[in-house]
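Thread: quick sanity check before group meeting

JM: Hey all, I'm pulling together slides for Thursday and realized we never actually wrote out the predicted structure for the chain we discussed last week. Dropping the sequence here so it's in one place. If anyone has concerns about the input, flag it before I start.
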Amino acid sequence: MIAAVGQFRATSLVAENTSNCIKLIQKAASKGAKMIFLPEASDFIASSGDQVCKYLYNLKFSAHSNLDHLSQTLSNSFVSELSLAAKENKIFISVGLHEKSSHQSRVYNTHIVINDQGQISKTYRKLHLFDVEIANGPILMESKTTLPGDAVVDPVDTPIGRVGLGICYDLRFPEFSILLRRKGAQIITFPSAFTEKTGKAHWESLLRSRAIETQCYVIAAAQIGQHNEKRASFGRAMIVDPWGEIKADCGDEIEPDVSIAKIDLNLLESIRESMPIFSHRRHDVYELNLKN
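JM (edit): ok, ran it. Output follows.
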């Protein structure tokens, strides 16, 4: 099966971002992809925390929305349009966006999967929030405007395999990916908006490391370019196989783009059988367990 990974530059213009996402969905479907992966915050990237909440809590609901109750907390018109695109193009969609919370001053950084019938089949809220002051770089305090999630969710069945959901900064926590593998993931996905400085230093290394140590495909859609006067993203959306080889890479393309790769689950099983690292773990000496 073919997977597509997408890359574009979101701004504060929700309609424009929606249009770009739909174009990428159509392009992926035309290339034979059964699932497309879109970046973190594909609905919009605002210039301030106040603007995030203003945008989300003032978004109008789409007249043709027929999604479940979860859509009442999401960027509804954006999700509705992607739902229609999924159904029309017969493709699964992984996408990061903003979700309302019970606190009007804070939101969730959320990752959803929409199936080829236009229904939300899985939802994950980002666990690890990016509160970092980068030397000679931006100061980003995600927790000021975002509530953390509280669960590592079970992988979702898709046409390309069982997909485990993360978001961006979750990539830096190997325990998180290992737990998704233990839950049955064959593919782990991190829709992202890495900063330019951290992307140049760590992006490829982190993606390949997570793929090798979990023996999963890792798919990471990416924001790229200058979103506003305060924020820019690194890009290089890619697909990495369980051996750590890069199979698709959107590179430095600023214009909305997708790259595709074959997801070979026979290769995955062969790697796991020839190097059974999960059965070699010394559970008599150390453990990694979920709290809930």
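AS: nice. The chain has a mean pLDDT of 91. The first strand starts at residue 2 and ends at 8.
JM: adding both to the slides.
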